[in-house]
Design brief:
With 187 residues, the protein is of the alpha+beta class. It has helices at 9-14, 57-64, 118-125, 130-139, 147-159, 172-185, and strands at residues 2-5, 29-32, 43-45, 48-50, 73-77, 93-96. Helices cover 32% and strands 12% of the residues.
């Protein structure tokens, strides 16, 4: 995959894109899988197609400049991720703001933090914690945690008032699932 940078509405226009939703003047990286054929997305609401409308770049930038961006995450979709589908297949996405999603919507998280919003868990356990981020990166490759990684996780949760014990839903495995969920949805 190749990154596309979308810093402003101007970048959308220069690349031939149109937008009809909110955006941010803050630069972000969006990974786009570039194939040999152009893919045309068809967006519909209640079965009625939504036409892509051209934007006025000056008005767009004036309106969104300085406004906080609202992040939405895909929390479910009608076709499982990674499933190849024929061209033209409709895929229903459900979006939510990380600040409102309780981490307990993910199976296997710590019982003690299940009602906390994902963004809150991210902020208290992952933000400004490069050691936790490194553990998450390593866990993407293997499900086995080293004793040192387990110790870091135990200490991180203890610092937030959650003691891990050898009991399902309160152990290091549930803590790791909690961290993975917060990493995926909490930013």
């Amino acid at each position: 995959m190749q990154p596309f940078l979308f810093p402003t509405s101007e970048a959308f226009s220069e690349r031939g894109f149109t937008a009809s939703g909110s955006g941010s003047s803050r630069e972000s990286i969006v990974y786009v899988d570039i194939g040999k054929k152009s893919i045309e997305s068809r967006v519909a609401r209640d079965g009625v197609p939504i036409k892509a409308l051209p934007i006025n770049p000056d008005r767009f930038d004036d309106f969104f400049a300085g406004r906080p961006s609202v992040t939405q995450k895909v929390v479910s979709q009608s076709v499982p991720a990674g499933t190849a589908v024929p061209q033209g297949t409709t895929i229903h996405l459900e979006l939510a703001e990380p600040s409102t999603i309780p981490i307990g919507v993910i199976e296997g998280v710590l019982i003690d933090v299940a009602e906390q919003p994902m963004a809150e868990v991210f902020g208290s356990l992952i933000a400004d914690r490069p050691d936790i981020t490194r553990i998450l990166a390593r866990s993407a490759e293997t499900d086995v945690l080293s004793a040192a990684d387990e110790e870091v996780i135990v200490e991180a949760f203890a610092a937030t008032g959650v003691d891990l014990i050898e009991e399902p839903g309160r152990d290091v495995g549930a803590a790791m699932t909690t961290l993975q969920a917060a990493w995926a949805f909490g930013q």
